[in-house]
């Protein structure tokens, strides 16, 4: 075998490989001989089929198989000889050798992994998120829980913010009703913003039994394309107005949260404990994101396009699975544009290469005791932690996920120990996504 390497770009390579046909002919003959000992053909006893007949019957097929295997093996040998790390899948360009050809030649074009040199982390600036839970944060969380358990009492007055209005309505465009523009017994809580603003702002001040007509302009980018950008006239008849009633924070409320004896102090302690765990998780996630940003800023690398394309395909498949889990099945024939995933895929591949080099260079691989501690920590949020631990350890795939998480935490710890770190106090509402 002869192999000639060409450099086509920073990461792109081309191998031109030549294999003597004599090697291929020997392998073809060897396989046909083995086949003749087992093949069954009409008119011949098993194992007694003449070699010439076997060659006539199966020669072409066996030769194609040998050529394919030769291509794969010779490419692998050439890659090892040249000490190349192939990224993605190579593109082969091979023409079947003609009769009497002395050589089988082909080319393989591919990308190689870049050489990753991690930048000077000591110059990186990282803001480490910081938040201490206080009693006011517990109060805010309890208030959210009260709103989640709201009930409504019918009232004989005009509707206002926070009230639930039950209504019938019909919409027309140029005097003609349109699909989706009519409903009976429709409920809406004023102020939640679930209807178009022009529709919702027309309802305050109405009482049960009253009607009102008003115009609503649909946005140009409205999901219903048949009405997008058009102005409709809606006629609404209010059937009922109900005022919100929040539960009191008392023993019954505590019991509804799982505190069997209704002890309010115990309930607050449990809520605080859950909050602290959630805050720790969110602070770690935000800090990790900033550490990853810092690593990509100080380490400049060119990533193989093949790896980005593979990651895009993986993200597309994950998106399909996620949509299906939400009851929105998307078949493989429905396009999910690659552009939607390209930026994320580029970042993930870049980080994967950088993290791999950091882990190798700093010896940050996940240790068994770290994995065990991470598994036990996750198990603590379940009623039977010991069973959850067994569940994790019963699956190599689940354990690999935990190992990956620990590995990333090791990298974050190393970066924070070496970078320029500044604590960044965040508000409870900002961290928990409650900020308006």
Short description:
By secondary structure, this protein is of the alpha+beta class.
Q: What is the CA-based Rg, rounded?
A: 34 Å
Q: Which residues form runs of ≥5 with pLDDT under 50?
A: none
Overall 3D geometry? extended
What is the CATH-assigned architecture of the largest domain?
Answer: Orthogonal Bundle
Assembly type: single chain
Main sheet record: 5 strands, antiparallel
The top-level CATH class of the largest domain is Mainly Alpha
What do the pLDDT scores average to? 92
Structural class: alpha+beta
Q: Approximately what portion of the residues adopt beta-strand conformation? A: 15-25%
Straight-line N-to-C gap: 68 Å
Estimated helix fraction: 40-55%
Counting structural domains, the number is: 3
The arrangement of helices and strands along the chain is EEHHEEEHEEEHEEHHHHHHHEH
Number of helices: 12
Beta strands, count: 11
CATH topology of the largest domain: Trigger factor, domain 2
Write the layout of secondary structure elements.
Layout: E1 2-7, E2 12-20, H1 21-36, H2 51-81, E3 86-94, E4 103-112, E5 125-130, H3 135-148, E6 151-154, E7 164-173, E8 176-189, H4 197-200, E9 211-217, E10 231-245, H5 251-256, H6 264-298, H7 305-325, H8 339-362, H9 368-379, H10 385-393, H11 396-418, E11 420-425, H12 428-432
Parallel strand pairs: 5-11
Antiparallel strand pairs: 1-2, 2-4, 3-4, 6-10, 7-8, 7-10, 9-10
Helix pairs in contact: 1-2, 3-6, 6-11, 7-8, 9-10, 9-11
């Amino acid at each position: 075998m002869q192999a000639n390497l060409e450099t086509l770009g920073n990461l792109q390579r081309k191998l031109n490989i030549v294999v003597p046909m004599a090697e291929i002919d020997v392998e073809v003959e060897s396989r046909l001989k083995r086949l003749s000992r087992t093949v069954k053909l009409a008119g011949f006893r098993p194992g007694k089929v003449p070699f010439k007949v076997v060659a006539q019957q199966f020669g072409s097929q066996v030769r194609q198989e040998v050529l394919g295997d030769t291509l794969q093996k010779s490419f692998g040998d050439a890659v090892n000889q040249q000490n190349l790390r192939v990224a993605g899948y190579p593109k082969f360009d091979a023409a079947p050798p003609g009769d009497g050809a002395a050589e089988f030649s082909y080319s393989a074009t591919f990308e190689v992994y870049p050489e990753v040199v991690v930048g000077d982390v000591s110059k990186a600036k990282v803001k480490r998120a910081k938040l201490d839970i206080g009693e006011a944060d517990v109060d805010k969380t309890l208030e959210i829980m009260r709103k989640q358990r709201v009930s409504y009492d019918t009232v004989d007055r005009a509707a206002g913010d926070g009230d639930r209005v039950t209504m019938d309505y019909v919409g027309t465009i140029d005097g003609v009703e349109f699909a989706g523009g009519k409903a009976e017994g429709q409920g809406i809580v004023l102020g939640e913003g679930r209807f178009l603003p022009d529709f919702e702002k027309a309802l305050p001040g109405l009482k049960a039994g009253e009607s009102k007509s008003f115009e609503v302009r649909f946005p140009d980018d409205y999901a219903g394309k048949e009405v997008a950008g058009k102005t409709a006239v809606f006629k609404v008849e209010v059937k009922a107005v109900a005022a919100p009633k929040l539960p009191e924070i008392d023993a019954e409320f505590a019991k509804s949260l799982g505190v069997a004896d209704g002890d309010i102090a115990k309930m607050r302690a449990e809520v605080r404990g859950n909050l602290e765990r959630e805050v720790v998780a969110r602070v770690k996630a935000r800090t990790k994101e900033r550490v990853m940003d810092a690593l990509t800023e100080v380490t400049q690398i060119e990533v193989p396009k093949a790896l980005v394309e593979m990651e895009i395909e993986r993200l597309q498949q994950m998106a399909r699975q996620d949509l299906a889990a939400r009851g929105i099945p998307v078949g493989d024939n429905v396009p999910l544009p690659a552009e939607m995933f390209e930026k994320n895929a580029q970042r993930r591949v870049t980080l994967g290469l950088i993290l791999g080099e950091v882990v190798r260079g700093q010896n940050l691989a996940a240790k068994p005791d770290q994995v065990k501690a991470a598994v036990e920590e996750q198990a603590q949020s379940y009623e039977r932690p010991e069973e959850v631990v067994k569940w994790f350890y019963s699956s190599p795939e689940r354990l690999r996920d935990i190992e990956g998480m620990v590995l990333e935490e090791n990298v974050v710890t190393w970066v924070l120990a070496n970078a320029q770190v500044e604590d960044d106090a965040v508000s409870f509402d900002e961290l928990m996504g409650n900020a308006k």
